[in-house]
Amino acid sequence: MSTSKKQVILGAYLGGVNHHTAWWHPEAGSQIDFDSFEHTARTAERGKFDFFFLAEGLALRERAGQVFDQDIIGRPDTFTVLASLAAVTEHLGLAGTINATFNEPYELARQFATLDQLSDGRAAWNVVTSFDEFTGRNFRRGGFLPHSERYVRAEEAVEAVRQLWDSWQEGDIVADRGSGKFLSRPDAGSFAYRGSQFDISGRFTVPRSPQGRPVLLQAGVSPQGRDFAAANADAIFSPYGSLPEAAEYYQDVKARAVAAGRRPEDLKILPSASFVVGDSEAEAREKYLAIRDEQVTGQTALILLEQLWNRDLSGYDPEGPLPDIDPDPEAPPFIQGRAFIHQDRFETARKLRAVSEAKKLTLRETVADQFERGPIVGTAAQVAEKIDTFVQSDGSDGFIIGSHLVPTGLDEFVDKVVPLLQDRGVLRADYTGSTLRDNLGLPIPANSVAVG
């Protein structure tokens, strides 16, 4: 029986527009200039991270019909950013969040296949879904997709995209030694897919990926979401950053992968996490509390609770108690464009009230205490130990690491924590593979298109 320790997978994310990002900090840089993306990606590659990750925002978020103040910076196009980063990195994976609801399989397959070719096999697609009319207005599809069909469309989109990626068989491209040109078989790139959401056929334009096909990422919390992710994804973004609930989720999703006919080690589980490092544990804790208080202002706390309560809570004092009224899930959405992560509004409100009462916290303090992303706080040695222990305890296979400070916040993690993880033997000293699948320890997938 092997006693070797699991290798820690590391992804880096750039915060973008949300309350966790300290855009007011004197050392903060732009969230849309290429220099910020380049600095974060180069820093991650210097730290031997597996990939760089971008979230996606298809619409500016709104509160009661008005755009959030912190959202007016906007979001640039994911593919343009990642393609640019392919030119300034050599080993780092490039993962983009692209919606399966508002994009067509041919376009999705072609864009990711192109990114994979340009980067020599480093592309990854984070598959997300959406059904809301608010986002759909930008695509002339407002309200067209019932909530129950979002995973139906996503599953068909993934199936169709995989067929397109695999439509070029091994050996489809051959060299004509006489002319020096490249020729392809007559049926290269031929595809046809028919389902309830798509009816497409034609000829794909991009050869098969250097890594077989781009890596698929997904997030699944609901039973339907977990089944979809376990059956289709190469890695899942876990919402759990603390044991034992993280370990329970880990075992559940891995078991679902086995039930779907897969090996458990071919599905990686990755929660997101921020970090705060200090010269002492007390200093780190002090820094963390100061950062958290700046992130969660009274206005921010009310907005986060308004999403849960689905009510206008502007009349409540952030330094007073939690709202004494119940959430209103049947009303039209008061907050638009934010991903809703709570499965049961009433139960979540009850838990918040219990925490507030037990810890004697104000409304703002309760939100700061309960809505954080599980920061890892301590000395560099303590942060490295916590990450290693979490992974070896099967809470995850690694972490997606971000910082409140864009773009230089990741530097401290790479300079102080990464060497300690390498000393523990759980993080590579250098890249050994040539593709993202190599670095993640994932096999090249079998071609889904039968070879004739």
TrEMBL record:
<dbReference type="Pfam" id="PF00296">
    <property type="entry name" value="Bac_luciferase"/>
</dbReference>
<keyword id="KW-0503">Monooxygenase</keyword>
<keyword id="KW-0560">Oxidoreductase</keyword>
<keyword id="KW-0288">FMN</keyword>
<protein>
    <submittedName>
        <fullName>NtaA/DmoA family FMN-dependent monooxygenase</fullName>
        <ecNumber>1.14.-.-</ecNumber>
    </submittedName>
</protein>
<feature type="domain" description="Luciferase-like">
    <location>
        <begin position="28"/>
        <end position="393"/>
    </location>
</feature>
<keyword id="KW-0285">Flavoprotein</keyword>
<dbReference type="InterPro" id="IPR016215">
    <property type="entry name" value="NTA_MOA"/>
</dbReference>
<dbReference type="InterPro" id="IPR051260">
    <property type="entry name" value="Diverse_substr_monoxygenases"/>
</dbReference>
<dbReference type="GO" id="GO:0004497">
    <property type="term" value="F:monooxygenase activity"/>
</dbReference>
<dbReference type="InterPro" id="IPR011251">
    <property type="entry name" value="Luciferase-like_dom"/>
</dbReference>
<comment type="similarity">
    <text>Belongs to the NtaA/SnaA/DszA monooxygenase family.</text>
</comment>
<dbReference type="InterPro" id="IPR036661">
    <property type="entry name" value="Luciferase-like_sf"/>
</dbReference>
